[in-house]
Automatic annotation (TrEMBL):
<feature type="binding site">
    <location>
        <position position="272"/>
    </location>
    <ligand>
        <name>K(+)</name>
    </ligand>
</feature>
<feature type="binding site">
    <location>
        <position position="239"/>
    </location>
    <ligand>
        <name>substrate</name>
    </ligand>
</feature>
<dbReference type="InterPro" id="IPR029056">
    <property type="entry name" value="Ribokinase-like"/>
</dbReference>
<feature type="binding site">
    <location>
        <begin position="9"/>
        <end position="11"/>
    </location>
    <ligand>
        <name>substrate</name>
    </ligand>
</feature>
<keyword id="KW-0808">Transferase</keyword>
<keyword id="KW-0119">Carbohydrate metabolism</keyword>
<keyword id="KW-0460">Magnesium</keyword>
<dbReference type="InterPro" id="IPR002139">
    <property type="entry name" value="Ribo/fructo_kinase"/>
</dbReference>
<keyword id="KW-0418">Kinase</keyword>
<keyword id="KW-0547">Nucleotide-binding</keyword>
<dbReference type="InterPro" id="IPR011877">
    <property type="entry name" value="Ribokinase"/>
</dbReference>
<keyword id="KW-0963">Cytoplasm</keyword>
<protein>
    <recommendedName>
        <fullName>Ribokinase</fullName>
        <ecNumber>2.7.1.15</ecNumber>
    </recommendedName>
</protein>
<comment type="subunit">
    <text>Homodimer.</text>
</comment>
<feature type="binding site">
    <location>
        <begin position="238"/>
        <end position="239"/>
    </location>
    <ligand>
        <name>ATP</name>
    </ligand>
</feature>
<dbReference type="Pfam" id="PF00294">
    <property type="entry name" value="PfkB"/>
</dbReference>
<feature type="binding site">
    <location>
        <begin position="37"/>
        <end position="41"/>
    </location>
    <ligand>
        <name>substrate</name>
    </ligand>
</feature>
Length: 310
């Protein structure tokens, strides 16, 4: 079983020609609300990947914004452990998506910031604990400590980016970051490979957008080229990757197989609007995997060069 402990937000999404610069007003077009939040997105991705039951610990306010979040998690098959905070609103995120599928996001944490160490449920029966950084850092560290004490694998998606204390990194089995987060967490501005070598975590995975992904695992490197797609909205793509990766690992898949599954899942998510609404199920992911070559020497060579491994 997988336990995701983290954030749940209602996303307010506006489509616009481009993301506004400071002081600029841009006329948008479509406006929609979607269930989101890094923790909830990852829980939905894990559940839709199938194979392992997924639970989620989350904080919600006593307001109307909580209802669509609960409905989305429930429909995905996620078992919820809700900490209700009547004095704090449900978390929200304000997202602008540009015509080239990039996004800019501002989050108001609300009830997410009220999760405390004592809220962690029993870890009996869980194999993996998946964490992010949209909840208090001391709470994240306490959850990781509890998981380590029970022999539960700790997976940390270090997003939003911030420097992390050595105490927390020492508790992490798998660290997942994007390129910008890797630079912040490693404290280094060199190549992908050089940044990865500076992190004393057994497995570090870095997602690289249209380039693919790269992992340093027990001293070696694993590369996964991106699946070619035409992106519509990249919101939630990284969360889809994280949830799908943990689901695959919990089923006993090796890291190269898990990376390929997660990459296919996140690629499909980029072809649809929204965060949780864009996450594919395992049948869709498998169809893409079956239709795609396992290896492409030219793409792999380009990815190695991009990561500084040549």
């Amino acid at each position: 079983m997988i336990l995701v402990a983290g954030s749940a937000n209602l996303d307010f999404v506006v489509r616009a020609p481009h993301i506004p610069a400071p002081g600029e007003t841009v006329l948008g077009r479509d406006f929609k609300t979607f269930p989101g939040g890094k923790g909830a997105n990852q829980a939905v991705a894990s559940a839709r990947a199938g194979g392992s039951p997924t639970h989620m610990l989350l904080g919600l306010g006593n307001d109307a914004f909580a209802s669509p979040l609960e409905s989305s998690l429930q429909s995905a098959g996620v078992t919820m452990h809700i900490v209700r905070t009547p004095d704090h609103p449900t978390g929200t995120a304000f997202i602008c998506v540009s015509d080239d599928a990039e996004n800019a996001i501002t989050v108001a944490p609300g009830a997410n910031a009220e999760l405390r160490p004592e809220h962690l449920p029993s870890l009996a029966g869980f194999t993996h604990l998946l964490l992010q950084l949209e909840t208090p850092l001391d709470t994240v560290t306490a959850y990781a400590q509890a998981a380590r004490a029970k022999g539960v694998q700790v997976v940390l998606n270090a997003a939003p980016a911030r420097p992390l204390p050595a105490e927390l990194l020492a508790l992490v089995d798998v660290l997942v970051v994007n390129e910008g987060e890797l630079a912040v967490v490693s404290g280094h501005q060199g190549s992908i490979a050089a940044c990865l070598e500076r992190l004393a975590v057994p497995t570090v995975v870095v997602t690289l957008g249209h380039h693919g992904s790269c992992a340093r695992h027990l001293g070696g490197f694993v590369l996964q080229s991106a699946f070619p797609i035409t992106p519509v909205d990249t919101t939630g793509a990284g969360d889809t990757f994280c949830g799908s990766l943990v689901a695959a690992l919990s089923q006993g898949k090796d890291l190269p197989t898990a990376l390929r599954f997660a990459s296919a899942s996140s690629a499909l998510a980029c072809t649809r609007w929204g965060a949780q609404s864009s996450i594919p199920d395992t049948a869709e992911v498998q169809a893409l995997l079956d239709a795609s070559p396992i290896s492409d020497p030219a793409s792999e060579s380009a990815l190695r060069s991009f990561c500084g491994l040549n």
